[in-house]
Amino acid sequence: MRAYEDWVIEAETKGLKISEVVLQNQVEELEQAEQVLFNRMSKNLKVMRESVAIGLSGERRSLSGLVGGDAAKVEARRKKGESLVGELMSGVIARALAVLEVNACMGKIVAAPTAGSCGVLPAVLLTIEEARNVSEHELLLAFFTAAGLGMVIAERANVSGAEGGCQAEIGSAAAMAAAAAVELAGGSPRQTADAAAIAMKSMLGLVCDPVAGLVEVPCVKRNATGASIALVAAEMALAGVRSVIPIDEVIDAMGEIGKQMPCALKETAQGGLAMTPTGRRIQADFI
């Protein structure tokens, strides 16, 4: 079974970044040239940039009327210098909301690792790109770090809300974003693992309870909170804070928690927020 720790050890031994180890692995496994993989990742990045821009415009509304315009509100407050949490964090929040609003409006997004969690990774990495003026090459490498961790999670556990709850979707996305953010900020391979573990631990047990069965409420706002958790985890890891439980064990625990979670709390809209009085009313109105 694939383990993130193996990549950490290899990166430390060879003096490489996690992204470089993942990239070498994929070149061999897929039998494709490195540039081909970079070009594919570059296309994903282009879609992410476009979805952020469309979402921040605030022009779209979902068919249900539940989603749309909130990203623009947060961005407007940020641009006025009124943010309570600072320029970087408010940028992350706005971008995460933006991408999920585009998804809810049937726009084009990159599932990272799923459509329901597609806002976390672009929100974190594109905001860091803006704040730290990193090159596109560095940014693309960071996405390979995220992708590598995503492969480990998918193999050891799962990234499906229907199988593991929202912890498997946004929890995984937050871990992936935290690891990539650490690398982008100059952290070590070991620190990427600690950041990922801290982020995922913070979201263990999170249920998937979409109101009316739509990937809108509470999914959109959970992407913003998941992205925020990713930044907090990255900051701790970069400061030297270690995760007592290693990332691979955290992933395994997440998988087990998902198995123990009742069906009503795994994307069936039969429990949680979906069954609140307001949730039931929305479902009745939508149907």
TrEMBL record:
<comment type="similarity">
    <text>Belongs to the iron-sulfur dependent L-serine dehydratase family.</text>
</comment>
<dbReference type="GO" id="GO:0051539">
    <property type="term" value="F:4 iron, 4 sulfur cluster binding"/>
</dbReference>
<protein>
    <recommendedName>
        <fullName>L-serine dehydratase</fullName>
        <ecNumber>4.3.1.17</ecNumber>
    </recommendedName>
</protein>
<dbReference type="GO" id="GO:0006094">
    <property type="term" value="P:gluconeogenesis"/>
</dbReference>
<feature type="domain" description="Serine dehydratase-like alpha subunit">
    <location>
        <begin position="14"/>
        <end position="274"/>
    </location>
</feature>
<dbReference type="GO" id="GO:0003941">
    <property type="term" value="F:L-serine ammonia-lyase activity"/>
</dbReference>
<dbReference type="InterPro" id="IPR005130">
    <property type="entry name" value="Ser_deHydtase-like_asu"/>
</dbReference>
<keyword id="KW-0408">Iron</keyword>
<dbReference type="GO" id="GO:0046872">
    <property type="term" value="F:metal ion binding"/>
</dbReference>
<comment type="pathway">
    <text>Carbohydrate biosynthesis; gluconeogenesis.</text>
</comment>
<keyword id="KW-0456">Lyase</keyword>
<dbReference type="InterPro" id="IPR004642">
    <property type="entry name" value="Ser_deHydtase_asu"/>
</dbReference>
<dbReference type="InterPro" id="IPR051318">
    <property type="entry name" value="Fe-S_L-Ser"/>
</dbReference>
<dbReference type="Pfam" id="PF03313">
    <property type="entry name" value="SDH_alpha"/>
</dbReference>
<keyword id="KW-0312">Gluconeogenesis</keyword>
<keyword id="KW-0479">Metal-binding</keyword>
<keyword id="KW-0411">Iron-sulfur</keyword>
<keyword id="KW-0004">4Fe-4S</keyword>
